[in-house]
Write a structure and sequence with these properties.
This protein is α/β, with parallel strands linked by helices. It has twelve helices and 13 strands. β12, α10 and β13 form a beta-alpha-beta unit. α1 runs parallel beside α2. The structure holds flavin mononucleotide (FMN).
């Protein structure tokens, strides 16, 4: 029976244990999204603390998809050299290196992009900074290649793979959710069509990654907004698996990653377990996982295959090493 310390195969990678550091934005890149020394030091410190995998924070694939002026960027080939420094220090610390690639859609403030934010149908996600405008078909058709080019840069930079951001009300999540996608063309109008852009994006990303790992951060619950439910998300799991996703990282949908009313330990675990019931690829859960014994129990019971530990790891970069040691006793 696997436990928190057991290895896990993710595509062609073997993780040394079941602890993942999920993407957490520092917003400490320079104004063009280039890696800074502060970021290199941050990831070096965290990799040395013992997690099996680090998912580097959300990196924008195009300026129109930037949510913060100091967000990390992966939108031009010039970013590769700096990103390679991150992959290198993460590997030196003994962890697998993945980078999250993203387009913020309607969540992008004008101050970060210099333009009006875009979205499937011009419907804002609660909490959006401004009113978005709907995307044209030509704009939507360009999205998969933006993600694919970012994936190619991640490969060149030496990452083991990428995580496509499809959660937290960002662009791909907005296409999946019936709350924000009211289109009546090939990109909306039915559950299948709402997945069309995600499918095309995954196909293009996979083409560039080759044998590297493609992960998906999956928005499994839109509550309190009337959108995707965990049961609907579970039914979408096989679609993601069928498009080459090697690990499904289940988090919040339009409600974001840390909804104010969800403070219980493992607040997205149940939804992640529903997804796990529908697929064969590994599934990770996130949200309020703090106690090592609880994390270990989730693996031992087979609830999920891996745990993402966010804020607890930020607070204590040694969390993973200490957790595994404490469980040995
Ligand atoms: C400071 C901070 C930055 C975050 N940035 C990202 C991000 O870049 N991409 C993402 O998918 N989630 C992001 N998240 C969400 C975390 O990955 C995680 O899902 C969330 O913190 C819940 O896990 P936790 O309870 O273990 O912290 C961020 C969270 C925090 C606290």
């Amino acid at each position: 029976m696997p436990d928190l310390s057991s290895p896990l195969a993710v595509g062609g990678l073997t993780l040394k244990n079941r602890i993942i550091m999920p993407p957490m934005a520092n917003n400490k890149a320079d104004e063009h999204g280039f890696v800074t020394d502060v970021l290199v030091q941050h990831y070096a410190r965290h990799a040395a603390g013992g997690p099996a995998m680090i998912v580097v924070e959300h990196s924008y694939v195009t300026l129109a998809g930037r949510v913060d002026r100091h967000q990390l960027g992966i939108w031009s080939d010039e970013h590769v050299a700096g990103l390679a420094r991150l992959a290198e220090v993460i590997h030196e610390g003994g962890a697998a290196a993945i980078i999250q690639i993203t387009h913020g859609g309607s969540r992008c403030p004008h101050a970060a992009t210099g333009a009006t934010a875009v979205s499937p149908s011009g419907i804002a996600v609660p909490g959006d900074p401004e009113e978005p405008r709907p995307m044209s078909v030509e704009e939507i058709q360009a999205v998969p290649e933006l993600f694919a080019a970012a994936a190619a840069r991640a490969r060149l930079a030496g990452f083991d793979g990428v995580e496509v951001h499809g959660a937290h009300g960002y662009l791909l999540d907005q296409f999946m959710s019936p709350f924000t996608n009211h289109r009546d063309d090939e990109y909306g109008g039915s559950p299948e069509k709402r997945l069309h852009l995600i499918g095309e994006t995954l196909r293009a990303v996979q083409r560039e990654l080759g044998h590297l790992v493609m992960m998906y951060r999956f928005g499994v619950d839109d509550r309190p907004v009337d959108g995707i439910t965990p049961a609907e998300a579970a039914a979408i799991g096989p679609y993601l698996e069928g498009r080459g996703v090697g690990l499904i990282d289940c988090s919040g949908g339009l409600c974001g990653s840390r909804p104010a009313d969800r403070t219980e330990p493992g607040y997205f675990v149940e939804a992640a377990a529903e997804v796990k019931g529908m697929v064969d690829v590994p599934v990770a859960a996130v949200g309020g996982i703090v106690e090592p014994a609880y994390a270990d129990d989730l693996i031992r019971r087979g609830t999920v295959d891996a745990v993402c530990v966010g804020r607890a790891l930020l607070k204590d970069p040694e969390w993973a090493r200490k957790a595994l040691e404490s469980l040995k006793g």
